[in-house]
Amino acid sequence: MEVKILSEKFDIENAHLLEVAKKHGAYSTLDKLFAMEPAAVTEEVKKSGLRGRGGAGFPAGVKWGFLPKDTGKPTYLAVNSDESEPATFKDRYILVRDPHMLLEGIIICCWAIGCNDVYIYIRGEYTTQVKVLQQAIDEAYAAGYLGDKVAGQDFRVDVTVHRGAGAYVCGEETALLESIEGKKGQPRSKPPFPAVEGLYSSPTIINNVQTIASLPFILTNGHEAYTAYGTEKSPGTHLFGISGHVEKPGMYELPLGLPLMEVIDKVAGGVWKGRKLKGVIPGGSSTPVLTVEEAKTVTLDYESMAAHKTMFGSGGIVVLDETVDCVKLVENLINFYHHESCGQCTPCREGLGWMKKITKKLLAGQGTLADVDLLRELCDNIEMKTVCVLSAACTMPVRSYLDKFRHEFEAYAIDNVSADAKLQGN
Amino acid sequence: MSDRSELIITGKPFAFDAERDAEFERLVKRYPIRESMILPALWLTQEQEGWISAEAMAYIADRIGTYASKVYEAATFYTMFNLEPKGQYHICVCRTLSCWLREKQEIVDYLAKEIGIRPGEISEDGRFSLEEVECLGHCGTAPVVQLNGEFHEEMDVDKMKALLATLK
Ligand SMILES: Cc1cc2nc3c(=O)[nH]c(=O)nc-3n(C[C@H](O)[C@H](O)[C@H](O)COP(=O)(O)O)c2cc1C
Ligand code: SF4
Ligand code: FES
To answer: Is residue A272 part of a domain?
Structure first.
């Protein structure tokens, strides 16, 4: 089932070095690129159907089309390498194993949108990754692929790495821009959208690492080669991360549209330790959980996920076995999102804190059925009433556990048995 | 959000060393406004000293030509900036979803027993500090530990024991 489009060079030794990458085709698309009109490049990307791989799945070419013309201001590109959504671990493979694919993609995007200044925003924890990426950038400058004259053309591209410092919210596109501007990572109200008024109040495109890294393949081989993979509405391939209770967790490149259960069983080795499946989180911790029944019918594409009332998200699949306590899992999720709230909206800052307290109370064996209802009600009252969707990234999954595994929450409330006592078999 | 409002005043002046100074000057040309140097300058400081003092923040503000409050705002918001010295060996254990499912708690409990510190604490001799952190982007090789910034994947108690044994 696995394919090698983006991951073609991942297993080649030292493919992060320019010399090796070039031997395997890196930067070979630039001649073709500079012979094309920028608008034609955007058109090709539109036809490829490439959708943003950061989580929201917005068509890349369409987003580029939102840039206003002749504003007299520079256009910026911010590459989102924050990769902080729990269960998401794909972009770092690109950074470490094939950074030149990302840089070539950046050049392609810059040409299409008329941009000269690029910032790669990388999460602070990626210490080894930032070193490899910076080395690749230095090599690309020395070889003339970056700088004043890209590949000898009268076209400048400067790439600067900007390190975050431990804030998940900076993956949100406007918080990311604030962070580059030197401020704390608090998302901005939209509109204006970044394409119109983004970094330094100028038109800005923000794209995920994997989105940008998909461009060299599309341009080299044409959009038909890309749409040959995946489904009609979800074309192409994706770097899926499979974690949790499977025998072979890891990152796998697959075409979109495969049945989820087949991927879990055949690619990831099935549920570990011969245990039974309890549920699957399909696209990062913020996506609603699927029951076993739902997991059997869903396929790995945007449309099927939506039909199952969940989301494709970032392609981070988490497998849950029969031993998982959904109340404890929800506590782990709420702790994360509450900790990462930037604090500017009351429903998010206080509401997630409130949800945390209720869950703790349930787990201590001190909750009531009214608390379970209150938790559910809070989900509805917090969502969509905040500046960004971080709060919804918490309430959407929590609501799904409450609706699909309600009896587990009720059991804590009715029996008033604490998690500790449960562990000791009382 | 967590409370990170306390700054430590050392009573000693701070300045970049020659290497950091050069890096600062290289980077400042990359941004159209000088305030964009706040995060990079905080990183340079932390690389040099291991943590960031009140004096260092004042120095950065001065160097950039901005208000000290802006530097303070960023330094206290971003949790990776250390506002106090950490242990010689700073251990971060991921506590989020996938690592939690793959039993990260066993590692935290082992470290608490072996070194005698809980998450958030520094050992009395200053050798170790322990922190539980959020998802480190290595969920496919959970549970994950970072030791002084270096990743250690697919950890368990035995591997943690072996890793500690390599430390002097
Ligand atoms: C709280 C929050 C965190 C996010 N984290 C990331 C991230 O780590 N990486 C990423 O690419 N997108 C992240 N996103 C999505 C970005 O806001 C944005 O949609 C994306 O970078 C756009 O790129 P794309 O169109 O190529 O996907 C996050 C969004 C939110 C609301
Ligand atoms: S929803 Fe939460 S994270 Fe997003 S802007 Fe509001 S307080 Fe900040
Ligand atoms: S959950 Fe621990 S690295 Fe992602």
So the answer is: yes
Overall domain count for chain A: 3
pLDDT the model gives residue A425: 62
Place of tokens 């059991």: A411
d(CA B102, CA B113): 20
Distance B144 CA to ligand 3 centre (A): 7
pLDDT of residue A414: 84
- B94 known member of a binding site: yes
Q: Do B77 and A251 touch (CB under 8 A)?
A: no
**Domain closes at, from A271, A286, A321:** A321
Instruction: Give the architecture-level CATH label for domain B18-77.
Output: Orthogonal Bundle (1.10)
Ligand 1: residue whose CA is nearest its atom 22: A207
Final residue belonging to a domain, choices A166, A199, A227: A227
* Gap between the Cα atoms of A367 and B82, Å rounded: 37
* Contact between residue A147 and residue A156 where contact means Cβ atoms under 8 Å apart: yes
What are the domain boundaries of chain B?
18-77, 89-165
Give yes or no for residue B141 CB within 6 A of ligand 3: no
Q: Check if B108 has its Cβ closer than 6 Å to any atom of ligand 3.
A: no
Q: How far apart are the first and last CA of chain B?
A: 35
Alpha helices by DSSP H, listed for A308-345, are 326-340
Put the strands of the sheet holding A250-255 in their side by side order: A250-255, A237-244, A316-321, A277-281, A290-291
Helix (H, G, I), strand (E, B) or coil at A257: coil
The beta-carbon neighbor of B97 closest among A180, A181, A318 is: A318
Please write the tens of the pLDDT for every residue from A219-272: 999 999 999 999 999 999 999 999 999 999 999 999 999 999 999 999 999 999
Q: Which residues line ligand 1 (CB under 6 A)?
A: A 52-56, 58, 80, 82-85, 169, 171-173, 206-208, 211, 388-390, 393
| Nearest Cα residue to A342 out of A197, A161, A183 | A183
Give alpha helix (H) positions in A267-389: 292-297, 302-307, 326-340, 346-363, 369-382
The whole-angstrom separation of Cα B145 and Cα B87 is 16
Same domain, A92 and A203: yes
Angle A214-A48-A236 from CA coordinates, rounded to 5°: 60
Distance (Å, whole) CA A79 – CA A53: 12
pLDDT of A137 higher than 60: yes
- The reply to whether A133 falls in a domain is yes
Query: Of chain B residues 83-142, which have a CB less than 8 A from chain A?
Result: 95-98, 100-102, 133-142
- CB of B93 closer than 6 angstroms to any ligand 3 atom: no
| Interface check B146 vs A, CB under 8 A | yes
- In single-letter form, the type of residue at position A329 comes to L
| Number of Cβ atoms within 10 Å of the Cβ of A55 | 24
Alpha-carbon distance B126 to A278, whole Å?
A: 44
The highest-level CATH class for domain B89-165 is alpha beta
